[in-house]
Amino acid sequence: MRLADDEKQMLDGAEGPAVQKAMDLLVRYGDALGAERFVDTDNVTLLTGLFMYPEILKKEVPDLDMDTIASKFFLDSDEVVVVDKVKAYTTTHIFTVNNTYWKNIQRRSPILAELAVLTEAYCRRIGANVTATCSPYLAGNVPVRGQHCAWTESSAIPMANAVLGARTNIEGCHSSFASALTGKTPEWGMHLDENRHGNLVVDVEEQPTNMFEWGLMGYHVASVAGLRIPVYRNVKKPPTMNMLMPLNAAGGSSGSVIMYHIVGITPEAPTFEAATGGRPVADRIVYGKAEQRAAYERLNHSRSESVDIVIFGCPHYSIESISKVARLLDGKKISASTQLYVTTNRQTKALADANGYTDAIHRAGGLVMADTCGLEFKHVASAVIATDSPKQAHYYPGKCGVENVWYGTVEECVEAATSGTWKGALP
Ligand code: F3S
Asked: Does the pTM exceed 0.90?
């Protein structure tokens, strides 16, 4: 990679050993990717990922000293270096600390519980803003068009690229940490104009009208797109942000769509020609009734109609969605045999608290939780789960061993929670 003067200085240690290690890691990373240079970034979402392997960490670092953990696991350094402050504006992913599920986590893995608390304190110490969410845009991290970012979390990446017009690849624990320390990210992939153009035309015949239907479309298209960038054509009614959240989440579950265009709607697709960069596109698929049904059948794989758990909030639920659940539950009670959970971030939960939605959901027998994720519910393998999230419907079988999952509309899920029975169907 060709380094600018400030990057050479960081690599030479002028800004201390932690920044030096971070720059060394990014140079190796950029070289491996074929990047020629760095771009400046002042927007990083940090994924610590420590919750994925707590027992291994404890073996490697018995006292769970965060400087040692950060050096070894984020900066690939055997020498322990102490981070002063992050250089880029940084927000954080989920920690599972501040939630009502916390006691279960402590029981399941005391090490995980301890690590979550230590990680949160560490992030605060180094100046990373603890937003604790997979949906940074709901917590005030909203980059603008053209802004270079180093974001993590598959469902958030297309929100940055396709919806906001910002530029980010899918970063991981190491690269996001190193970018936070240096304010640099290798210029490759989504940072370059030529890689952002669409190369798979999707002719939309079955018009999605709600979150559920946008989720189905994203799920189907991602399952055939591979690494191509879909260009949705003929979308008659612009989606809301709430509808794009399941589109994005589904796109990162059945496939790996990190960028797409909706002609006439998303910022880099005012016209079809702009979306494709004026290049001819040979690959074309149709999204019609048959494709919608195929996606529905892949996501609905329950053999039981009685529902044990209803879960909302993947990606973390917006205030719009929480208010809708509260409204649908008004004057009703959750069935004695069913549990209902809403997961969101601290910021949105505070709004829900202030507006009375949390109370309304709790009065009906549900539970609103901040900072956590339904896939943390690891004791649920034998339960029948209903969700409005295509991402969780996709991951529950593989990640939590849940065999019986229903995917449906918010209304169908609330109905399942109050009656204890699944009555959803594809219209
Ligand atoms: Fe977020 Fe968990 Fe879903 S991290 S996107 S709520 S799988």
From this structure: yes
